[in-house]
């Protein structure tokens, strides 16, 4: 997964391309405030959460890629828009 925004600001194409991939397992967690979680192995484990995207919506699908848009909470507690760009790969 790569994020398209940092602190609510869209990354340039170079910034986006230069960032490292975050690898993990995606899982949709329904509820009053649905979220898409990115986990090292899965939400049932005590592993660290790699990311949480709240109120996720499908933004784009093409070939082996999929993008989700939603809001993330920053380290200082702000809610900001983000889009996760994901590549689908078999393990």
Can you describe this structure?
- It is a single chain.
- The protein has 91 residues and is mainly beta.
- It is 7% helix and 53% strand.
- It is built from 1 helix and 8 strands.
- The chain has one helix spanning 13-18, and strands spanning 2-3, 5-6, 9-10, 25-29, 35-39, 49-62, 65-73, 79-87.
- Strand 6 and strand 7 (65-73) form a beta hairpin.
- The protein is globular and about 35 Å long.
The secondary-structure class comes to mainly beta
User: Would you identify the regions where 5 or more consecutive residues have pLDDT less than 50?
Assistant: none
Task: Measure the end-to-end span.
Answer: 15 Å
Task: Note the run of SSEs as H and E.
Answer: EEEHEEEEE
Helix content: under 10%
Major β-sheet annotation: 6 strands, antiparallel
What is the CA-atom radius of gyration, in angstroms? Answer: 13 Å
**Order of strands in the sheet with the most strands?**
1-8-7-6-5-4
For the residues shown, what is the average pLDDT? 89
Q: Tally the beta strands.
A: 8
SS summary, helix count = 1
Strand content: over 45%
Identify the notable features of this structure and list them briefly:
91 residues, mainly beta, six-stranded antiparallel sheet, two-stranded antiparallel ribbon, 1 helix, 8 strands, globular
Write the layout of secondary structure elements.
Layout: E1 2-3, E2 5-6, E3 9-10, H1 13-18, E4 25-29, E5 35-39, E6 49-62, E7 65-73, E8 79-87
Antiparallel strand pairs: 1-8, 2-3, 4-5, 5-6, 6-7, 7-8
Task: Give a brief rundown of this model.
With 91 residues, the chain is mostly beta strands. It is built from one helix and eight strands; from the N terminus they run E-E-E-H-E-E-E-E-E.
């Amino acid at each position: 997964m790569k994020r398209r925004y940092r602190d609510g600001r869209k990354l340039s194409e170079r910034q986006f391309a230069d960032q490292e991939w975050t690898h993990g397992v995606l899982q949709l967690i329904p509820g009053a405030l649905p979220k898409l979680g990115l986990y090292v192995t899965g939400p049932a484990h005590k592993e660290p959460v790699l990311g949480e995207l709240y109120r996720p919506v499908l933004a784009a699908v093409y070939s082996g890629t999929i993008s989700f848009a939603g809001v993330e909470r920053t380290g200082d507690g702000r809610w900001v828009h983000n889009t996760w760009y994901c590549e689908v790969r078999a393990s």
